[in-house]
Structure formats: C-alpha cells, structure tokens
Amino acid sequence: xxxxxxxxxxxxxxxxxxxxxxxxxxxxxxxxxxxxxxxxxxxxxxxxxxxxxxxxxxxxxxxxxxxxxxxxxxxxxxxxxxxxxxxxxxxxxxxxxxxxxxxxxxxxxxxxxxxxxxxxxxxxxxxxxxxxxxxxxxxxxxxxxxxxxxxxxxxxxxxxxxxxxxxxxxxxxxxxxxxxxxxxxxxxxxxxxxxxxxxxxxxxxxxxxxxxxxxxx
Amino acid sequence: xxxxxxxxxxxxxxxxxxxxxxxxxxxxxxxxxxxxxxxxxxxxxxxxxxxxxxxxxxxxxxxxxxxxxxxxxxxxxxxxxxxxxxxxxxxxxxxxxxxxxxxxxxxxxxxxxxxxxxxxxxxxxxxxxxxxxxxxxxxxxxxxxxxxxxxxxxxxxxxxxxxxxxxxxxxxxxxxxxxxxxxxxxxxxxxxxxxxxxxxxxxxxxxxxxxxxxxxxxxxxxxxxxxxxxxxxxxxxxxxxxxxxxxxxxxxxxxxxxxxxxxxxxxxxxxxxxxxxxxxxxxxxxxxxxxxxxxxxxxxx
Lengths: 217, 301
Fold this sequence. Notes:
By secondary structure, chain A is mainly alpha-helical. Chain A contains 8 helices and no strands.
C-alpha cells in the first residue's frame, strides 16, 4: 500500500517537473514548485511510515515550512504580480522535454548496474534514478530560461532532486552539504536580482560587471 | 446487447456533455449559459432545415457528414460506455477516428471556399503532429495493461485496481481529448474568426441535416474519448453482466463520470487562452513525455 502511494507520488513529481519546464508565467511556476514541495513532504512522510526514522519526519516538516511556504512566498513578494511572458533561451519547452527523456534514460543506464551492485530494492532504485534525473532536469530548466528569477526554479528543482536521491540512497550529511551548496547559489542569485532589477538576464549582469573590468587593450 | 446499448447511450448523451461544457464555461464567465438541452434543440432545428450545397461541390460534400456519423457510431462499439461487452481494438479505433477526420478535411476542401481549405490545412497540420503522439499514448496503454482490446483494458483496471502509471497515461489521454475535440488551447469552438478557426472552418460550408450530422459526430467523438479516459482512469460502475440493475447503474455511472470530465474540460478551457499554432507542439510534447514516462515507469518499477 505504501509502495503504491510512493510510486504515485513519483509519477506526480514527474508531472510537476514537466510543468516547470513548460510553464510560461511566474505565478504558475511558483505554484507548481509549491505543489512539488508538498509532494516531496508526503514522500518523506511515507518513507517515515516505512522506515521509522524520526529524521524523515523532521525533513517532511522542514520541506513543508521552507520549500512549500517560505521560498514560494519570498519569490512571490519579489516578483509582485509580474504577468509577463517568461522567455525561454537556447532550448524550447518541447526541446527541454525531449532532453528530459534522454536524461531519464541515461540516468537509468548509468545507475542500474551500480544500484544492482548495492542490492537496493526496486523502489529505492526508482528513487535514486528519479533523484538524479530531477537534478539534471533542474539544470535544463536553468539554461532554458532567460530571466534570472525563473532560473531559480531550476536550482530549486535541482535541490529537490538531491533531496530525493538522498532520501532513498545516501546518508543525511550528504543531503545537508548538497542542499547548502544549492541554497548558496540561490541566495547569490536572489541578491543579484534585488540589486540589478527584476527583468535581469545573465547577459545583462555580465555586461554591467564588464564596466568594472574595463575595456581590454 | 451491451454493445448496442453502448452505441445508443453514446449517441443520446453526447449533446448533453457538449452543452454542459458550454454551461461550465458560461458559469466561469459569470453568465447563465444555454439550457442543458440546447444541444438537442439545435440538432432538431438543423434536421428540419434544408441542406444547401455549393454548385462547385461534389459527392464528397454530400456524403462526408453521413460517413462521419456512421464511422463514429461504429467507433462507439469499441469503447465501454455503459458496460464491458464485445471487443474493441485500440488501433482500429484510432484508424476510425482518422477516417472520419480525413472525410471532414476533404469536405472542407471540396466546397472550394477559402475558409474550408484553410481549416482543412490547419487540421491536417495538427493531425500530423498529434497522431504520432496518439500512437505512443495508445502503445503505452497497451503495454501497461497488456492488451490491445479497450474492453479488456477496462477489465484489467477493474481486476488489478488503480496503478500509478495510469495517472500519467490519463493526462496524455486528456490532452488528446482536448486536441481531437478542437478545444482551447488548440482551437476555439466558440469563434468563427479567420485567425483562430480550425474545426469550425472545415464545417462552415455544411448546412441543414449535414451540419446536424457533423455536429452530432463531433459530440459522439468527444463522448468516446471521454469513455476511453474513464475506462483507464476510473472504470468502476461499468456493467459486466446483462442484468437490468447493472445496466441502469452503468448508464447512471457513465452520465455522472461524463459530467465530471465535462466540468473539468469546461474549467480547463476557461483557465487558458488559445495558443498560437507554433506553440501547440509544447502541449503535444507533454502528452508524449507522459506516455513515454509511463513505459519507462513500467520498466523501472
């Protein structure tokens, strides 16, 4: 019963990441991310019911407070109802989804042998593959979005991937180290947005910083 | 017996679902909307009207509408609407839908009007993109449930209970329902604007009985795709035996489930605007992604 529920949550998580890749407005992007966080909290809760590690329960509570409430509300307050089209760069949503299929297949190919060696159960192997795929798909979101604000959602999706992988395969210290790293990236980007304006792109940031460097001789 | 009842209910109930979607969209815009039986009134009104045909048109224009209706009635044999009885190969069902679309597009071109030709051209462009996706979705469905027969698929879901992968496939089927029935964001059934018309442009030259048949065939197609979605997602309530109680319960369950899906379709349409033609592959790709993921999921888990 718990296994079936976990599988259903995996399915729904994939649906949310597909929507994150294709949505064009920031409001629905944030709502989808909040839904993804809620599903992640449910996943941690279900794993707690199976494994009985109190840490998982704390993790579920933290995800609910930080990832479902705090982060989305912070981004919402920064963007102040920006209803403009969130542009894509380099890869269109169609291309992103095709890339995602390749990523999932590659993750399966790369990990299946290793996971068999580790002797993990099917559900845990699926968790590991989902985690790695999510991390890579987060990267796709980062380079397929033009505005810096929307790139943050990519970092957050990457963070979710690390969390899923850690919940199913790795130990807790790895979760903390990896998540702090991703959070640091986001903090820097959020500060950049606050400093340089809402509609900032990486190219514009580069252009402004170039002033400090001066012209090459 | 069940197969005939499936056809009868599909034909009789289809205009109700069509009108209910219009009603939900009207509610979303704070309007009252048409009466629930408006679809039937319109059908009866059109049946009484004279069929006017262009002097340029050939036998295709005359026969496209009856052929469309006949094909949809045959396709109704394939879907468990009220109960599970008979057989329904999913590939043959797909071919029947394609055949109906082919004749509709031919009729659009046959009248010689610019609008009809434009609609047919757009419809064929969309079909060329959505059909590979539909094939993948149906292949995933057959792979997960281990059969090509739609009736047996419903039986498999009833026997094994709901599966996680079926949630994904249901989303793909929902996207196919939206695309095949020419709804927002693919097409706008409410408008006759040159810029947005696809389905409406193809039937613009139809009149009288032929238009009534075309409209009814379109409504039946929507009901059949809804029936397919229900057979996969929630087949509970389908009659598996030919007793009066089971059949009446089956009809009631289908109406309730159909109204629920219609309500959702109405809300879905109200929540978004029509997409530009070149943005449509994004939506189709979502359906492809979900069905591909379904197959992967079955292999992984």
